[in-house]
Amino acid sequence: MAAKQGLPTLTLRVLEEALGMGLTAARDTAEAVAAEGAYYLEQVTVTEASEDDYEYEEIPDDNFSIPEGEEDLVKAIQMVQEQATDTQILEQKTVLPSKHPVPEVIEDFLCNFLIKMGMTRTLDCFQSEWYELIQKGLTELRDLGNVPDVYTQNMLLENENKNLKKDLKHYKQAADKAREDLLKTQKERDFHRMHHKRIVQEKNKLINDLKGLKLHYASYEPTIRVLHEKHHTLLKQKMLTSLERDRAVGQISGLQATLKNMEIGHNYHASEIRVVPNREKENALEGPTQKGLREAREKNKSSTKIKDNTKDSEFPTDMQPNPNLYLYKENICPAKVDYKLNNIFRLHELPVSCIIMHPCKDILISCGEDRLWKVVGLPKGNVLLTGFGHTDWLSDCCFHPSGNKLATSSGDTTVKLWDLSKGNCILTFEGHNHAVWSCTWHSCGDFVASSSLDTTSKIWDVNSERCRCTLYGHVDSVNSIEFFPGSNTLLTGSADKTLSVWDARTGNCEQSLYGHMHSVNDATFTPRGHMIASCDACGVIKLWDFRKLLPIVSIDVGPSPGNEVNFDSSGRVLAQASGNGVIHLLDLKSGQIHKLMGHESEAHTVVFSHDGEYLFSGGSDGTVRTWS
């Protein structure tokens, strides 16, 4: 019977997997070598059949029938033995033992070790020499044995240790980064905490200061109220004293005239003998009142000698027609708002405070904070005349209706009148206690009105050269003043956030307009006179119905302050000069707002040409810009 003995295929399979390369050829060679001489023949003697009457056991031929032509004794014996072995196993009911893990053989261990260490050349030498020994039969695999489990465990533990070291290194790096982030966060927290504490301290300090200022201000309020009352009382007393003085001066004048008539019928010597002792006696017995009357009489004499023919002007009683009404009917072309910067005139060294157009000619006048006013020819911008005489900055100017005179207001508390044909000052009005912000001519040309920081407005008589009336009513600076076209009505805008309408003949406030939340910087009438436009320190423009004295619309173009507003000749476009250098154009028909960007700094004033084709603006850089 043949039996097969050789290298187990399981060992070769494990070796092939460990090496990771084609070891199939080596395994086939080992099997072939082991197969040579693995089978051997066993001699069996078969006796001849006896002729005795021995009864042979009958074998059933159900499962062990041999086909005809294939009878082989050796195969038959082998099949019988296998059947007997199987029967025995089934009778004993043997349970096969469980398979235990087989440790690596030495060759597999060495191959795995060389592969892990990356020693490929050593691995190739080992494999070639090892399998050459196997092929020659000099080495038997069966006698080599296995690698002890402790080495395998050491390798596993070593691998696990390496992995743990890598994880530890990674965790250390993460911990270091987290520590740095924590320190950085703690520093930022400490900084913000310290900053917060400082802010809280400053806030508490400001709150305490604010409380102290409120208490301080509250303590001053009664004093201020009492001083205001005393001020008004003194003004009333001053007015009454002035009236009494004027009455006394009139009586003295009458007595002097009577005395002169009485002296006509006497001779010179007699009068001298009678009058001189009386005057000496009178001078010896006169008190303070008589002395004051005598000084007033002498002053009145000197003034009457200088101004024998002067007298107060009369306000016109009839309403004069407004020429702009017919101009508006004729001007039916669409309003122009698409202006572009055309030219820049550098006229002043300090900011330009006011620009006005001549009523008849193509010239404009600019006033600046350098105490000068200049007459500028258009369109070239050449300076035709320069006027100087004020001792402080100029705030406003206004043409006489005829265009041959100019009125200017200044921070030196005066209003001056100028003759444009000669360029010299012909009259100076003094009476305001603080800077004068604005001035305006009456349409008749006999009166000039001015507004001041001293909360009052004054009406000056050009012919009698004196103040005819002082307007009281505003409680803060009066920033603008303007006569209604062709009438005796005045419009003022004040820092007390109100507009007031006055009767110039009586000096009474007819109406006050409320609505602005901030100081009113400028106010003006439309050319037709039916509407008022005003702007305040927060850039809010308001339009008012002058006939009803009610607000129409409020437009916020802030937060930059509006310094001045002016209408074009048609009254359909309103221009505002803003503190941020932008000129805002409001189309009253469509309600659209257009912006002109060109000033590098604050824009103080703006005015249209008579035909509306040009727009002129003055800024704090001392320049006048032309837009067309």
Automatic annotation (TrEMBL):
PROSITE patterns tied to this protein: WD_REPEATS_1, WD_REPEATS_2, WD_REPEATS_REGION
Coiled coil, from the record: 154-188
GO cellular component: axonemal central apparatus
Start-end of Basic and acidic residues biased regions: 292-314
Keyword flag Repeat: yes
Family annotation (CDD domains): WD40
Keywords assigned: Coiled coil, Repeat, WD repeat
Record flagged with keyword DNA-binding: no
One Pfam assignment: WD40
GO biological process, alphabetically ordered: axoneme assembly
WD repeat ranges per the UniProt record: 387-428, 429-470, 471-512, 513-547, 596-628
SMART domains: WD40
Residues covered by region (Disordered): 279-320
Protein name: Sperm-associated antigen 16 protein isoform X1
Gene from which this protein is expressed: SPAG16
